[in-house]
Structures are given as structure tokens and as C-alpha cells.
Recover the amino acids of this structure.
């Protein structure tokens, strides 16, 4: 279970810049948020602190709502739906807001961590969390993930290839739409055929330039 932030930490999160997610607080408060994966320290001077996608999600959440058990992704970062989960998060307006906030936070992470400040290509975090990053791009664009019974919808899976994920979608038109979404989000995506089943799938990797 993910422990909710303290009242003091919540005040720092709520006071973050609404556009950039820039934080102000004591060094101890900022260090605690970094340790929990809710903030990151910019590597370049003046080394300001900014909300991560997980931090943006907490700021968007209703502080009066009861806390619920949730398995955080690596580093405590927002977990996008990869398709086929046995216990997927609930859908609805709240989920849409969470996904939107996570995507905006990821774009800000790109701006702050890519050497040239570019937001049109993946950043280092995405290259070390390929499945989650690709899934977030798809979910944020409105694509439907597959349910636990593998109904129609996308599924993002790791592959043996370095810096590449596979995206499966039974419907050919929707598979091509997934490819367009990923390419717009800064990925390279190409269609391939599974040798045994002859099913089409995407092989996608983050674009470097």
C-alpha cells in the first residue's frame, strides 16, 4: 500500500506551480518528496525541484477521498494500463483526470531532463520504463486497453530486444492508430507478423533524435 503524503508534504505539493510543477519548500521536505518518487531534483543549476507524474497525480486527487490500496510502478511513478491486468484500475472521469495529469507531468519531465528541453521525444525515464511509458502514451490518447480476459484492446509487452516493446491489438485499424499515436509521442513503430499465429503487432522504440 502506498502511504499518503504527510500534511506538510501535501501543502508543498498543492503549492507547486500549476504549469511546470516547480516546488518550493525546505530541503528536508523536498528531499522527502524525492525519496518517495513524488519529485525530482533538476540536474542543472539552480537545481530546482519539480513534481514527477506521481506528484502531479496526487495534486490532482481529491484530498478528502479515502486512500485506496494501489501497487505503484517502479519508483512510485503513475502506473498506466498495459492491457490484460487481472485487477485494472477503475475507469471513469477520475481515471481520465489521473491519466491526463500523468501525461502532462511526463511531458514536463521530458522538458526538464532532455538536454535540449525537447518534449517531442522520450526522456531517460521512459527508456528505463519502456512498457509503462508506451502504455501511458496510448492510454492518454484514449486508446482502450485489453481487459483481463484479453478482450479487444491494446496490450503492451516487453521484448528481448533492447529499447523495444511489442504492442498487440487484434483490430488492424486500431493497431495502426496505436502506431500513429506512438509516433506522435516520439516513438518509432513498425508493424510485424507473429510467425506462428500470423497476428500483426507493433514493435516500438523511443526515438533519439
Amino acid at each position: 500500500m502506498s502511504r499518503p503524503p504527510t500534511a506538510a508534504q501535501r501543502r508543498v505539493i498543492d503549492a507547486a506551480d500549476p504549469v511546470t510543477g516547480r516546488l518550493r519548500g525546505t530541503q528536508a521536505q523536498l528531499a522527502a518528496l524525492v525519496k518517495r518518487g513524488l519529485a525530482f531534483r533538476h540536474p542543472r543549476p539552480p537545481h530546482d525541484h519539480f513534481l514527477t507524474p506521481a506528484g502531479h497525480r496526487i495534486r490532482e486527487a481529491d484530498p478528502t477521498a479515502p486512500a485506496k490500496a494501489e501497487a505503484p510502478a517502479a519508483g512510485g511513478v503513475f502506473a498506466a494500463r498495459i492491457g490484460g491486468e487481472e485487477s485494472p484500475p477503475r475507469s471513469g472521469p477520475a481515471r481520465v483526470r489521473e491519466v491526463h495529469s500523468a501525461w502532462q507531468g511526463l511531458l514536463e519531465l521530458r522538458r526538464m531532463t532532455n538536454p535540449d528541453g525537447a518534449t517531442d521525444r522520450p526522456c531517460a525515464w521512459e527508456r528505463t520504463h519502456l512498457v509503462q511509458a508506451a502504455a501511458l502514451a496510448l492510454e492518454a490518447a484514449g486508446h482502450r486497453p485489453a481487459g483481463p480476459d484479453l478482450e479487444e484492446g491494446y496490450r503492451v509487452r516487453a521484448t528481448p530486444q533492447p529499447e523495444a516493446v511489442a504492442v498487440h491489438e487484434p483490430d488492424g485499424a486500431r493497431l495502426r492508430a496505436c502506431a500513429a499515436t506512438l509516433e506522435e509521442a516520439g516513438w518509432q513503430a513498425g508493424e510485424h507478423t507473429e510467425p506462428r499465429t500470423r497476428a500483426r503487432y507493433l514493435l516500438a522504440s523511443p526515438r533519439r533524435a
